[in-house]
Design a protein that fits this description.
Distance between the termini: 46 Å
Largest sheet: 9 strands, mixed
Number of helices: 15
Strand order of the largest sheet: 11-10-12-13-9-16-17-18-19
Shape: elongated
Structural class: alpha/beta
Radius of gyration: 28 Å
CATH topology of the largest domain: Rossmann fold
Helix content: 25-40%
C-alpha cells in the first residue's frame, strides 16, 4: 500500500513549538489526529495511543494563530487546508469563541480496496459500516479512484463535508478521475444526490455518512434508477441498521407481521414477528471494525432474514496479512451475539442431544427404511417452516424432498414442545415405522447435526 498524506502542509500551520516536536517524531505515519484545547497541553493521538506534544499549555493566541491560517469554518464547525485531505473541527464556548481544535489527518492510501476488488467489479451497491475514525472515508476515496481510473466508470462523489476530495475547488488527486459535487449545507445532501443522477449521468454515486430519512429515501430512489451506490454510515454491525429506524430502509426495512395460529405453530414462533419489507438498497454490506480485517455480507437479504429469525449466519471474513495477500475465511455467528462484535469470535453453543422422541421402534427397520430412500431424504416437517429447512439443507450435500403426506416420509422432524403433545402423530408414525426426531430449539446447527447422520 502506498500512502500520501501531505502531513507537512498541516504541520506548518501549527504553533512553532508543536512543529518542532512533530518534525523530530519518528512515527508520523501513525498519527491520527492532533488535539488543541485551551488551557491544556497539546495532544497527539497515534494508532498505538495518545501522547503529549509539549509541556506548554495552549493559549488563545495559539488557537488564533492556527484558525487564521486555514479556511473558514462551515456551519458544521469544520474547516480544511487547501489541496489537502486534512479536516480541522472546532469546539466553541457559549460566546461562540473557539476554545478547542481537532485536527484529523487525511490520507490517500492506495491499495486498500484490493480485498474487495471482486465486489467493486459487480454491478451491486455496497454499504460500508464502521464506527467514527475507523477509516471509512479513506476507503471510499480509494474506491472512487479505482472505479474511475482503473475500471473507467463515470463516478460522482457527493462531498458534503469536503473530506473525500479535500477543502478546495480543485479535487484532491486521491479520487482519480471521479467528479466531485460539493454540498453547501448538510441538510441539502439528499437534494444534491438526486441532482447528480438527473444532470450528470453517473454510473456510480459515492455518498459519505448517510444518516437522515431524506438521505435514505434519496439513496433508494437512486438505486431504483439503476445507478450503483457506494455509501457509508455509522454502526459496528448489521444489527445496528436493523435497530435504527432511520437507516433500516437501506437494508429493506423492517415491519411487524401477524401470523395465523396455524402458521405460527408450524414455524414455531410467536404470532407477531419481524420481517424484511422489501429488497435492500445495498446488496453488499462491509463491516469494518479493524483496518485490515473486514466482514463481508455478500447477500444482505439472506443475512437480514436470518438475523430477524434469531438464527445462525455464515459470515465472510477477509484479512490482509501481507502486502497483496488476502485471506478469506468463513465463520458462523449466532444472531444473538452479533452486536458484541468488537472482539469478533465464533459463537459456541452446546447442542442438545438429538434422540428419537421414543425408542420402541425397531432400529433395523428404521435403518432399512432410511437406506431405501438414501438417495433422496423425504422429510415431513412438523412445526418447522419449509424455508428454514431449505436454508439449512443448502449447507449439506444431501438430496431431499419436503412432503405434507406423512405416509411418504422417511423422517419426521419437529420442535419437541409441539411433538410431545401430538399423540395421533406418534401413533401413526409407530404404525408406519417412521422415526421422529425432535429439536429442543429452532437451531440450524441442531438440524444439521441430525441430518448429517444420514449422509
Amino acid at each position: 500500500m502506498n500512502t500520501n498524506n501531505d502531513l507537512e502542509k498541516l504541520i506548518e500551520n501549527l504553533p512553532s513549538f508543536i512543529q518542532d516536536y512533530l518534525h523530530q517524531h519518528g512515527y508520523q505515519n501513525e498519527l491520527i489526529e492532533i488535539v488543541l484545547d485551551l488551557g491544556r497541553r497539546p495532544e497527539a493521538r497515534f494508532t498505538y495511543g495518545p501522547e503529549y506534544l509539549s509541556q506548554k499549555i495552549i493559549s488563545w493566541q495559539d488557537l488564533d494563530y492556527m484558525t487564521q491560517r486555514i479556511s473558514k469554518f462551515s456551519n458544521e464547525n469544520r474547516a480544511g487546508i487547501e489541496r489537502t485531505l486534512h479536516r480541522i473541527s472546532c469546539i466553541r464556548n457559549r460566546q461562540f469563541l473557539i476554545n478547542g481544535l481537532t485536527c484529523r489527518i487525511g490520507r490517500a492510501i492506495f491499495g486498500t480496496v484490493s480485498v474487495i476488488r471482486d465486489l467493486l467489479e459487480s454491478e451491486k451497491s455496497i454499504l460500508i459500516l464502521g464506527r467514527p475514525g475507523v477509516g471509512k472515508t479513506t476507503i471510499i476515496r480509494e474506491i472512487a479512484r479505482v472505479l474511475s481510473d482503473e475500471m473507467e466508470q463515470r463516478v460522482i462523489i457527493i462531498d458534503t463535508s469536503n473530506e473525500i476530495a479535500g477543502d478546495s475547488d480543485i479535487p484532491h488527486f486521491g479520487i482519480g478521475r471521479a467528479r466531485r459535487m460539493q454540498v453547501s449545507k448538510t441538510e441539502f445532501q439528499h437534494q444534491v444526490m438526486i441532482e447528480a443522477v438527473e444532470n450528470h449521468m453517473p454510473q456510480v454515486i459515492i455518498i459519505d455518512e448517510i444518516g437522515t430519512d431524506l438521505e435514505v429515501l434519496a439513496a433508494r430512489t437512486i438505486a431504483e434508477k439503476g445507478v450503483k451506490l457506494i455509501g457509508t454510515t455509522h454502526g459496528n454491525c448489521l444489527e445496528n441498521l436493523v435497530k435504527n429506524p432511520s437507516l433500516a430502509e437501506l437494508i429493506g426495512g423492517i415491519q411487524y407481521v401477524t401470523l395465523s395460529d396455524e402458521e405460527a405453530k408450524r414455524r414455531g414462533t410467536q404470532k407477531s414477528i419481524l420481517e424484511r419489507k422489501s429488497y435492500p438498497t445495498f446488496e453488499h454490506v462491509i463491516e469494518i471494525n479493524a483496518l485490515k480485517s473486514w466482514i463481508i455480507h455478500e447477500n444482505v437479504s439472506s443475512s437480514i432474514d436470518l438475523l430477524l429469525r434469531n438464527l445462525y449466519e455464515t459470515e465472510q471474513l477477509r484479512q490482509i496479512s501481507l502486502p497483496e495477500k488476502v485471506a478469506i475465511k468463513y465463520q458462523t455467528t449466532d444472531a444473538y451475539i452479533i452486536s458484541s462484535r468488537n472482539s469478533l469470535r465464533p459463537s459456541v453453543k452446546r447442542l442438545s442431544s438429538l434422540e428419537p422422541l421414543w425408542s420402541d421402534i425397531n432400529k433395523s427397520k428404521i435403518q432399512e427404511r432410511l437406506h431405501v430412500t438414501a438417495k433422496v431424504l423425504i422429510i415431513y416437517p412438523y412445526s418447522l417452516s419449509h424455508n428454514f429447512i431449505k436454508e439449512a439443507m443448502k449447507k449439506v450435500n444431501i438430496r431431499f424432498i419436503l412432503t405434507n403426506d406423512i405416509k411418504k416420509a422417511s423422517l419426521i422432524i419437529g420442535l419437541k414442545k409441539h411433538l410431545k403433545h401430538n399423540l395421533k402423530l406418534k401413533q401413526l408414525a409407530q404404525q408406519k415405522q417412521i422415526p421422529i426426531y425432535s429439536l429442543n430449539q429452532l437451531s440450524i446447527y441442531q438440524f444439521l447435526k441430525l441430518i448429517q447422520n444420514f449422509s
